[in-house]
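Is this the right way to post structure tokens for a design question? Let me know if I should format differently. Anyway, here goes:
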């Protein structure tokens, strides 16, 4: 075999090694990017869980506000009845107070239901983001593994062709 063929085989081998190293670097970068994206999704999931808690807290505050407003309404209503010379705890004034209490109770029930629906929807989105993070990370690992396999395959293929050149 002549010297130029050995040189060509060596150059071919070096090219294959460089190519394989490049593919391995791309695989590592792919895994790192997937991990970064997964961490972003996990952060978003955490923020959504916190948003659900805030929504529930807002619902609690709104409930307290409604009850305070209702108490003020009843106090004002009783004061008007008293000013009119009507006894507030009997007859029509009592029926009006019960009707108002029932309306507030219905409002509270609906408000609590809406808050629960909204916070559950936010929590569901958080769960979806968490699952998305796991999928992103898994996809990154699979892609990186495939790229590493390609790098090994390229390296072995290059070695084979280099040996064939050297011993041809």
């Amino acid at each position: 075999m002549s010297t130029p063929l050995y040189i060509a085989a060596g150059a071919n081998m070096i090219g294959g090694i460089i190519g394989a190293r490049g593919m391995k670097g791309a695989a590592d970068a792919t895994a790192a990017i997937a991990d970064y994206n997964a961490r972003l999704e996990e952060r978003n999931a955490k923020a959504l869980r916190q948003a659900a808690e805030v929504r529930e807290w807002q619902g609690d505050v709104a409930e307290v506000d409604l009850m305070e407003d209702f108490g003020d309404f009843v106090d004002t209503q009783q004061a008007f009845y008293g000013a009119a010379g009507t006894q507030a705890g009997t007859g029509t004034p009592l029926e009006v107070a019960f009707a108002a209490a029932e309306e507030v109770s219905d409002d509270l029930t609906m408000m609590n239901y809406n808050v629960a629906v909204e916070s559950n929807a936010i929590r569901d989105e958080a769960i979806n983001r968490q699952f998305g993070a796991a999928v992103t990370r898994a996809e990154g690992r699979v892609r990186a593994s495939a790229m590493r396999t390609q790098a090994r395959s390229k390296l072995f293929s290059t070695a084979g062709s280099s040996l064939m050149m050297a011993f041809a």
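Format looks fine. Someone answered above. Worth noting: The two ends are 7 Å apart (CA to CA). Residues 9 and 164 are 8 Å apart (CA to CA).
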